[in-house]
User: Fold these one by one.
Assistant:
Number 1:
Amino acid sequence: MLTTKLPPFIISSDLTEEEKDQKYEELVAQWVNKVNDTLKTLIAKIANENGVPAQEAGQIRVFGRLTAPKKFNAEMDLAHRRIDYLIPAELLYGIDQQSIGVDLQTFLKSMKEFYPTHKRTDAVNAMNMDRQEGDEQDFKYIYKLKKLMQKFCTPIVEVDEDDEASVLAKAFHQQKRAKYGKGSKNITKKLEEDGDQLQKIVDDKKEKNEKKGEKERVLKRKRYHNFTRTMMAHEFLSYRRVDRFFHRATVKFDGDSESSRPFVLLSAKGDLFLDGQVRAMIALFVAIVRGYVPADIVECVFDEEYPNLVPCPFVPTTGFHASEMNYSTWEGRMNAVLTPRFNETWKKGWKSVSIREAIHEFEYEVQKTISKAWNTNGEEVPLSRDLPAVEEWVETYLKPWSKRANEQYNDYCLWKKAREEVMDSENPDASVWEILTPPLSSISNEVPHLYAKVLELLRKADESGQWPSTTAKRQLVMVSTTNNENEESTTSKSLCVQQLKAQAGTFEKTCAYSFKEGQGGASGSFSVGAMPGQCDQPKANTLFPELMKAAFELEIALCPNREPSSTIAINRNAQFRPHIDSGAGAGQSRSLIVALGNYTGGELMVEGAKNDIRYKPLEFNGWTERHWVRPFKGERYSLVWFTPKGCDGVHGIDLCI
Ligand SMILES: O=C(O)CCC(=O)C(=O)O
Ligand SMILES: [Fe+2]
C-alpha cells in the first residue's frame, strides 16, 4: 500500500463546468507529481536495502488518475496483456548469417531502426519502407524469424469434429459468450430452458454454419508447462493462450551511427502468462536462431502426447520492462480509454496527446536504461563482439542447456518414429515404450550385496498383499494403469479434454487426472519414518518394521557421510510424471534416491538430465528440481530418503525397533 499526503480533491460547486474541469486537471497534475516523487523515493529505498544498484532498480511512473467502479479488478478484468523484452540484437545473429558469410559487425550494422508507436501503421510503414529499400536478404531473414515466432503462439483453427478437445473448446467459448458476450441474453435464456448443455450449443451453431456453408473456428490452446518452473503438464493452468509473439522494434540508443549497437524489442501478447513464460519463449527462440537447437524442437516442446518434460531456458531478467494492459470490456462500461492510444469512441481516459507522448518518452527512457544495464561494465564494446553479459549468458547457460536439449530432442525423434510404427496397434502408448525399452534379457539379475536384504523385504511386503494404498495427491503424479482390464476408465486420456471439461464445470477437479484410492494399477507408494508436526505417523512403520530398519541402514551404508534422513518414500512400479515433491526440505534439503529390482528403462530424469539409478544412488533436490521416471519393463522399486521441513534433526533409524 502506497500512502502519500495531499490536499483533498475538493472542487467548488460555484465554478462553471469548464472551470471545474480545469481545476480537476490541476489537482490531478499535483497528485501525479506527488505520487511519482513518493514512488521514486520508495523504490530507491527498497533497492538500497536489497543491495540492488540504482540503474537496475526499475521504475514505476503514474500518468494520471481515473475513478473506476468498485467492481473493477485490475488483475481479474484484464482482457489481454503485452509483455516486452529488450535484448541486444546480436542475440539474433544466427547460423543463417554465418552460413552466407555475414559477420557479426556487418549484421549489426545492417539492422534498420524502427520504432513502435501508438499508431501501429507507423511501425508497419517503417517495415514496409525497409522492404522497398530492397535488402532481399534482410527481408527474408526477418520473415523467417516471424514464421518461427508464430510457432510459439496459439493458432485459430477450423473445428475438427473428430477432435473432442477442439469441439469442447468451441463449446466452452460459446458458453462463455452466452453468459457475458454480445447477444448473450437470448442464448442465456435458451440455456436455461434447455439445461446447461455444452454439446447442444455446439450442435445448434454447427447446424447454422452448415446452412451458411461456413466452418467453425476455434482458438487452439497449447500447454506451456515447458516454459515455466511452477506449472506441470497435468495442471489445468498450463493450457494458455498466446495471441502474438513478435519483433516490435529495433532501436539504436546512440543515434543511427555506424558504431551504434542495435537492440531488439520482442513482445508477447496473451491473457495470462505463467511465471517466466515469456523469458523462456525468448530464450528458446534465441537458441534456435543462433543454431544451438533445431527449429523442430518447438514441435517437441508442444507435443501433447510426448510424456517427457523438455525444460526451456530463460533469458536474463535484464530486458523485461513495460507491458500493456487491455481492458476492452471495461472501456465501454467506463466510457474511457484505459489503454493509452488515439481513440474517438470513449470520452475519458488516456487519450490526450500529452499523456501519450509522456508515456512514449518514459518507455524510451526505460529502454535506454536497460540498454546500459546490458552493457555491464559500461565500456565501449566494438560491434564485432557480443556484449560481455550476452557472452556470459550464452557460454555458461545457453550452450550447456542446448547440449541437454539436443539429447532430449533426439529422444523425441526416436519416440516419434516408434510411435508412427505402432500407430495402428491396439495400445500405441504402451507399444511405443515396448519398442524403446531394452528387453529384460539385456540386464543381469544379480543383486549387489548391499541391496539384497532390502530387496528381499520389499518383495515380501509386495507379496503380503498389505502394500499400503497411495495417497490421492501422489497418484496425481503417477501414470496409472487400471488393475481390471475390463474396467472402463472414467477419465479421458487427453489432458486437454480433461482440462476443458473441468473448466466448463462438467466436474470439479483442479487437475487433469483423477483416481480412486487404490487405483493406479500395480503401482503404489508409501512412506516410513517420521512425518512433520500434526501429520499422522506412517502406518507402514508398524506394518513393515523390518523393512523400515533395513532401508534406513541402507542409507548409512550407501552414504556414510550424509546426515541420516528422517523419512523414506517407498515406491513399487511407479512411473512418476514430471513433478516436484510436495512440502519443503529441512537443512541440506537434498534427497537420496536409488532403485532396485529387475527392470530396464525407468531412468530418473532430473530437469531433463537422464540418470540410471538402478543400484546407483543419486542425490538431488526433489523440492526444486523437476523429476520424472521413464517407462520401464519389469519390476522396479525405488527408495527416496529425505528430511521434510519440521523433521530437522530427526533420524529415522532412531525410530526403528
Ligand atoms: O522412483 C523414482 O525414481 C522417483 C521417485 C519420486 O520422485 C518420488 O518418490 O517422489
Ligand atoms: Fe519425487
Number 2:
Amino acid sequence: MNSLNSIWQARQGLDTASAGAPAYSTTMGGAPAYSTTTGATAGAPLLSVRGVGHAYGETTVLHGVSCDIPQGRAVALMGPSGSGKTTLLHLMAGILAPQQGSIVLAGDQSDLARLGIEDRAALRRSRFGLVFQSGQLLGELTAVENAALPLIVDGVAYADALGRASELFAPLGLGGLDARRPGELSGGQQQRVAIARAMVTRPQLLLADEPTGALDRRTGEEVMTLLLQAQRSLGASLVLVTHDPEIAQRCDLVLHLRDGRIVSASEGVLR
Ligand SMILES: Nc1ncnc2c1ncn2[C@@H]1O[C@H](COP(=O)(O)OP(=O)(O)OP(=O)(O)O)[C@@H](O)[C@H]1O
C-alpha cells in the first residue's frame, strides 16, 4: 500500500500544480504564422495547436502560438532560455490549461482547452507519455515498478503491469535491472526507466523536456537514440524540448521559439 500511496501522491502533486496556475490574461492573441507542412511532415496532424497564449500572472509568455505536431514524427522545440518551450510543452501535455486558443487531438477531436483538470489528467495517462530532464522516479519503488506506474494507476493488475513494463527493459538496455531502486542506477539508466514508463501505455504522443540535459554527451546520445526508437516503434509522435542543436537535428521538424512566438520551422538534417 505504501507504493500505491506514493503513486497517488505523485499524481496529485502533478495535477495540483496545474490547478495552481496563475490567472489568465485576455490580452493574448495571434494567428498561425507559418506552415509545418513540409515533405517530411506532411499529413494529418496528431495535435493542432491554434492561437495558444499563456500568462503567468501579468506576464505573457506565449503569444498566440500555432503549430501542428504531425502523426508519427519527432518535433524539437528550440529557443533561448525563457522563450516559452517548457510552457508550450506543458500545455500540449495538458499539465497547464490553455488560457487562450485550442489544442486539438486527432481522433476524438478532444480540445484540451475545453477539458477540466481531471479529464486532461486522464487523457495524459492514457494517450501521452512524459519524460523529464531527470527521471522523476519514485525512490522507494523498484525500476520496474516505476516503469509500470501508469498502468497500475489505471487499474491494471500489479503482476500484469510489471510484466508489461519488464518486457521493455531488455530493448532499452535495462536487462537484469528490474529490481534496482532508482538510487542504484546511473543517470542514463534512470532516463531509460523513464522512457519505459513513458512507453508502457503505448501512447500516441511522447513529450520530453530536455531528457538528455542532465547527462554527459555520449550517454545523452544513447538516450536520444532510444527515445527516437521508442517513438518509431510505437508509431507515436514526439515533442522534445532541447537546447542541443545536434539533438534537435535528429528530429523530423525543428520549431524555433523566441519571446513566446514560433519564429521559424525547419526540417532536421540528421534524421
Ligand atoms: N510557474 C511559473 N510562474 C511564473 N513564471 C513562470 C513560471 N514558469 C515559467 N515562468 C516564466 O515563463 C517564461 C517562460 O518559461 P519556460 O520555462 O516556458 O521557458 P523555456 O524556454 O522552457 O526556458 P528554459 O530553456 O530556461 O527552460 C520565463 O520567463 C519563466 O521565468
